[in-house]
Amino acid sequence: MNHNSPRDISGLLEELGAGLKKRWGQNFLISGDVRTRIIDLLDIEPGAAVWEIGPGLGSMTEELLERGAHLTAFEIDWAFVRFLGDTLGARFEHFNVVQGDAAKTLIEVQAEHGNPDYVLGNLPYSVASAIIAVLLENGISAKRMVVMVQRELANRMVAGPGTKDYSAFSVLCGTRARMRKVFDVTPGCFYPAPEVVSSVVEILPGTEHEIRDPVLLSRLVRELFSSRRKTIRNNLKGSGLAAEYGLERLLDAFETTSIDTSVRAEALSTQDFVRVANALA
After folding, report:
1. Any idea what DSSP says for residue 192?
2. Collapsing DSSP states into helix, strand and coil, what is residue 177?
3. Measuring CA to CA, which residue among 193, 268, 183 is closest to residue 232?
4. CA 84 – CA 225 distance, rounded (Å)
5. How far apart are CA 14 and CA 19, in angstroms?
6. Which CATH number fits domain 6-205: 3.40.50.720, 2.10.260.10, 3.40.50.150, 3.30.1370.110?
7. In the predicted model, is pLDDT for residue 48 greater than 90?
8. Could you tell me how far CA 54 lies from the centroid of its own chain?
9. pLDDT recorded at residue 56
């Protein structure tokens, strides 16, 4: 089939008895130039272990396999799983499709087979942040990850302190990996066309941060951003961390690291969050 043709895609969906499911963000990338640019950015070598999240009808899957990838695809839609198995599975030896919610199946496959060399994801807008969090918080490391997400989420992934897009998710991304927003993809490159612009982001796992307790760091960040307009001190009062550690100990950790609790969380750098979490650990 022609992956650039809305007519071909629509016809195949009808043949498969697979209607478009909005809740799963099924928008197919119909620009061959954009697909090639994304796969070139991933820059795999033959024989590399690659995970693809959200392959859909396999437009990028096929090109990855042709470049020699040993590919595991994560797909939630049973109709697409069967189609990929019947077509690409019959042509390529090193290809496997895992059905289910990627937020769960990624961890299961990691536990059984270890980490991949590369990760590619055309992520549904509604669950993109959850999937990225699973990748980063569960140590699913790779040489390089390339994801396509809604532009607003991409801006949060790369945002720095003091900016309107800086959030708890920005800190999660910045403490676990190096992020680079590479290019935008307009709605016309998809079928059906979404109402928003997408962005392609390169993720290079690993940073200079030495994190003693990643779970504690994540809790600290979420609690300090729980009410953006409140100061750090006011967010700490009555927090779960205060109940567990005691407010005085939390404030001591900030004093030890010379971080002012009268400012808002958005004023702190990723290194500031790490320093406080390490002081508590």
Report:
1. S
2. strand
3. 268
4. 42
5. 7
6. 3.40.50.150
7. yes
8. 12
9. 93
CATH architecture of the domain with residue range 214-280 = Orthogonal Bundle (1.10)
Helices (H) and strands (E) in the chain, counts: 13, 9
> How many Cα atoms within 13 Å fall on the side-chain side of residue 93?
2
The Cα–Cα gap between 13 and 88 comes to 17
Dihedrals φ, ψ of 28, to 5°?
-90, 135
| 59 closest CA partner among 199, 189, 152 | 189
- Structural domain boundaries in the chain: 6-205, 214-280
- CB neighbours of residue 12 within 10 Å: 15
Lowest mean pLDDT among 24-28, 189-193, 207-211: 24-28
Tokens matching residue 109: 């496959």
109-124 residue pLDDT tens: 999 999 999 999 999 8
Q: Report cis status (omega within 30 of 0) of the bond before 187.
A: no
* Per-residue pLDDT at 194 exceeds 80: yes
* Amino acid code (one letter) for 6: P
pLDDT digits (tens, 9 = 90+) for 134-156: 999 998 989 999 999 999 999 99
- Work out the average pLDDT over 61-68: 97
- Contact residues for 95 (Cβ-Cβ < 8 A; gap 6+): 61, 65, 71, 73, 88, 89
Backbone conformation region of residue 20, classed left if phi is above 0, alpha if psi is from -120 to 50, else beta = beta
| pLDDT of 25 above 70 | no
Q: How many CA atoms lie within 13 A of 10 on its CB side?
A: 6
Q: Is the pTM of this model over 0.85?
A: yes
In percent, the amount of the chain with pLDDT more than 90 equals 90
